[in-house]
Amino acid sequence: MIAKKMLKYVEGSSVTRAMFEEGKRQAKLYGAENVYDFSLGNPSVEPPKAVNDSMIEVLQQTNQNKVHGYMSNAGHEEVRDAIAKSLNQKFGTDFSEENIIMTVGAAGGLNVILKTLLDPEDEVIAFAPYFSEYNNYVANFDGTMVPVSPSIPDFQPNLEEFAQKITARTKAVIVNTPNNPTGVVYSEETIQKMAAIMEQKEKEFGTSIYLIADEPYRELAYDGVEVPYLTKYYKNTIVGYSYSKSLSLPGERIGYLVIPKEVDDFENVLNAATIATRILGFVNAPSLQQLAVAKCLDETTDITAYDRNRKLLYDKLQELGFTCAKPEGAFYMWVKALEEDDNAFVAKAKEFHLLLVPGSAFMCPGYVRIAYCVDTDMLQRSFVAFEKLADSYR
Amino acid sequence: MIAKKMLKYVEGSSVTRAMFEEGKRQAKLYGAENVYDFSLGNPSVEPPKAVNDSMIEVLQQTNQNKVHGYMSNAGHEEVRDAIAKSLNQKFGTDFSEENIIMTVGAAGGLNVILKTLLDPEDEVIAFAPYFSEYNNYVANFDGTMVPVSPSIPDFQPNLEEFAQKITARTKAVIVNTPNNPTGVVYSEETIQKMAAIMEQKEKEFGTSIYLIADEPYRELAYDGVEVPYLTKYYKNTIVGYSYSKSLSLPGERIGYLVIPKEVDDFENVLNAATIATRILGFVNAPSLQQLAVAKCLDETTDITAYDRNRKLLYDKLQELGFTCAKPEGAFYMWVKALEEDDNAFVAKAKEFHLLLVPGSAFMCPGYVRIAYCVDTDMLQRSFVAFEKLADSYR
């Protein structure tokens, strides 16, 4: 009785989520302390204290209808103004309130901008491995997903294949740096090359190709690595940001889109995105969260715990002979499976109570993702299991 | 450059929103106190104190990752359990946690269930006048909207035409009672007749026809009028609820879907709706709001102010010779325009600084909607303007 498209989803379901359920099952069987769940990107570090304090401060305002009421679909004007100013200060950009649309997280923002841009069969390019929800978001609007093969072993975007895959129907390119699932950060040089390719193809085809920068991990970069702000390198860039990881608020669904005035067809893109926010059923981003994050624009979750986990895990995996992409950002490590079939490898890991996500779920078989946003104590206890896993392949 | 569908929306834009902007413009020109804005359904009554207190209480919990983190896409289990129990107590139903999916308001819920159900060209019936966003929600999933003509002057659903319009492609029927824009509540007898028609047509065509009850106004009913709980009258009923009006939280985007286990293809509907929540980009309803409303399930916004406005306005409009539908619920009054062209009538009202929404925006020309969720003081000051408006047609 349900929609045919949805029946396919129900049958397929999400590998990541299935893993989440498996975690719960194993925890019941063996005790939570004996299960090492690295499957979900759910921040383990608490939000900065200022975030909670700001929410309480906003709640104590006298005008409750302002705090909890409707506002423009694009969001509270003063919030958007504060975000624009903060971006300008950090990145030397020139945004104003009208360039910002508050969204229900980055997932909401991506859906809004894809609805805005995509006609049926328009093509959207993404670089494997990538977050598989992109496939679903693009399918929501009958677009066609065009994956670019991974560049092994550095997992920087494969620019040669990228250039080949751009066609007259390419409407958008999604870039995610720091990257889920690899933890890799795209260098400035890479971004410059990518921009040059896109500009050349826009000329060749007489089209506009929008670069969508999906940036939930922007603030999670280590060793002082710089994460280039993409609007500065390519005119038709639209940024989708989320506070899910930077302020550890994934359940609150708060983020924003940046639509710079330089993008082609700016007025229409802006108006359509505002309307898309409404008609997709978001209506607006949650009001209290908008008002709260505006008071915390200089705050970031304390990433030292992630950084510590990153180093501990990377060193241990190296010691055990695993091959990893260089983890410079986000809270994921991308590891070569010890057999060809990553699903079989994940099943084997499960025997040692290690819950990992197969690379196939990110359009890149042969690898696994380890989400190290976990208690350091649990991480250290898991090392014996990783050792047993490695041994089982010797 | 944007999607063709969206270009159409940008050109059309929302009449209600345009009115909202007109209000801001007039307020600047004539002073806010001299503009009588009845255009938006934005609650004027503050949320109950318990709602704010609950939010603060939740924020003061020690486990901030629980308060702000990811949970199952369907929502916090204990929240869904509390809502199911509260519904069972109020309506004698038999729901459990698994029948409830927390949503980003009712708009989010409607999009989730329409995505779940609709194949392209499936038909969805709604009774004019109806909230015009339904057209957009149905179009999001390539469904075909089939409006049933209004039944004048009582604005109960036109059941004769309803029966004629059901076809083998009818997948869903949307019912909204108490009704936006009419303020009418559908009687139990009406609901029973409607259910009988649908059951008969399901048999005739060998199909399942889902009744979607859009219920943001359930708690706003006056004079002790009963609002029937639709799952009790028709097996294939799915309820979309929102706390936007009942707790004055429209900006927070919190509501839920009820999917009773009796509905055809229950498991698939439930699983697909949970997946739709994720892939449409909502991911989950805002976490803090979920936890807060669960503590306020017996609370309702103080509707005495709306009731007072309702009586004052209804009496005044009667006195001035206007024709109104019987306003038993919500916070809207549905009034016959004093000329055939409701847009011209709205333009005339604007000259007296009265901002109303034309019936055309609800698929029912010749009428206007007055949203009386406003300050009583403003309402009373507006009466002179209504008088002048009526006079201008004598």
Question: How is this structure best summarized?
Answer:
The structure is a homodimer of 394-residue chains. With 394 residues, chain A is an alpha/beta fold.
General description of the model:
- The structure is a homodimer of 394-residue chains.
- Helix content of chain A is 42%, strand content 13%.
- Chain A is α/β, with parallel strands linked by helices.
- In chain A, the strands form three sheets. The first copy, chain A, has a seven-stranded mixed sheet, with helices on both faces. In chain A, strands 9-12-11 form a three-stranded antiparallel sheet.
- In chain A, helix 3 (49-59) packs across helix 11 and helix 12 (304-319) packs parallel to helix 14.
- In chain A, 54% of the residues are buried.
Features:
seven-stranded mixed β-sheet; alpha/beta; globular; 394 residues; 12 strands; homodimer
- Summarize the helix and strand pattern of chain A as letters: HHEHHHEHEHEHEHEEEHHHEHEEEH
Summarize the largest interface: chains and residue counts: A-B, 77 and 77 residues
Q: Helix fraction of chain A?
A: 40-55%
Q: How is the main sheet of chain A built? A: 7 strands, mixed
Distance between the termini of chain A: 50 Å
Please identify the structural class of chain A as seen in this structure.
alpha/beta
Q: What is the radius of gyration of chain A computed over CA atoms, rounded to a whole number of angstroms? A: 21 Å
The number of strands of chain A is 12
Percent of residues in beta strands of chain A: 5-15%
Assembly state here? homodimer
Integer average pLDDT of chain A: 95
Task: Work out the helix count of chain A.
Answer: 14
Query: How is the largest sheet of chain A built, in terms of strand order?
Result: 2-8-7-6-5-3-4
Coarse morphology of chain A: globular
* Unreliable sequence segments of chain A: none
